[in-house]
Input
Amino acid sequence: MNILVVGGGGREHALVWKLAQSPKAERVFCAPGNAGIAAQAECLPVGAEDLDGLVALAKDKRIDLAVVGPEAPLTLGLADRLADAGVVVSGASAAAARIEGSKAFAKDLMKKYGIPTGDYRVFDTLEPARDFIQKTGGPLVVKADGLAAGKGVLLCQTTEEALAALDQVMKAKAFGAAGERVVIEEFLQGEEASFLVFTDGKNIRPLPTSQDHKAIFDGDQGPNTGGMGAYSPAPVVTPALHDEIMGRIMRPTVQAMAAEGCPYQGVLYAGLMIGPKGPRVLEFNARFGDPECQPLILRLESDLVDILEAIPQGRLDQVDIVWNDLTSLCLVLASAGYPGAYEKGLPIEGLEAAAQQEGVVVFHAGTAKKDGRIVTNGGRVLGVTALGRDVVQARERAYGAAERIRWTGKYARTDIGLKALARIKEMAS
Ligand code: AMP
Ligand code: GLY
Output
């Protein structure tokens, strides 16, 4: 069959890498892809949000199966459009993707169905929102309702910071139309974990647990990024907690979406805060996480094509989904300056040496080819991903391979995976 992956980041490279290994895959296409994806797929210069272009491409290349990486095209209705064109597509419909596209929608859904999340209020105008902040007092979290490329969440320790954040969102319109509505939320304490499931709207098959590292600096300091590294499994999610998350969060959410007339089919990702009151939902995403997808894909033993086909066909209960018992870890190598301004077009050395390390796969994110050389082309450039028998070995392998890669201004956190290590030690003692 002919397969199309939409997107061009590390997550999409991991999906292409896995799909290309399927005996069912004849041709694998990626739009727009990147320099690393080009080694395993035919990259086509169609943007991930160019819906007309993607539908035309799907017809032209006789695509049988499509998977959509990023959230923006899903909220715009790409999965619906491709399905109408006869493609088997594994991705949420526009109606279902509202669970990520509107934070107010997600919060109201959780409230209506008793799914654990922080207290919150939604506002469409500035004055009542300001009054609420003044009355409640910080710490608070101010969130633009719509998609803001992961930047629309402002963590405010004090009332003054929350008022300034509100002005930034609603007055200065820092996130454009995404900030016309604002969600003001209780500041939750605890440790974060990512919990992803495959669902066909009825059957739910959890992926292994994982944990992202959102802040730019070690020790979770500094501004949030798209994610600086991830590992799987996340020991913070104990077996008892796993049951609780499935029973109180994932199953009720899938049932709620069906009850609301927008059944959810695809990967459903809950960003959780595990705190003293148990797991609570920070946000839902309508897709694989990036970088969580990279370590998760290295743990998948089964054919991803079989899983993705079964989702729109409503027969997820019938597929084998086997994960290995190893630990995987993805270390993101970023451009100096990210998540702010950074330089592009810098030549990258050492990619081959890094890829030769045992257990290591180097997934590309912001890379391009220029004059026959691979150069940087984004904030997050590479995801050096390694499998190991435990987090110590996965860390050693990923960091060891990353050392072989060089470009001017390469930046990485030095503490990816250390939280897992600390928790494992704590559980052993
Ligand atoms: P979101 O895009 O909603 O997941 O928010 C991005 C990040 O902001 C999360 O991964 C958390 O680190 C943080 N965050 C979001 N909501 C809250 C909250 N209510 N309390 C504490 N931290 C939060
Ligand atoms: N890793 C966070 C996200 O994909 O949104």
Notes: The mean pLDDT is 96. The longest strand covers residues 266-275.
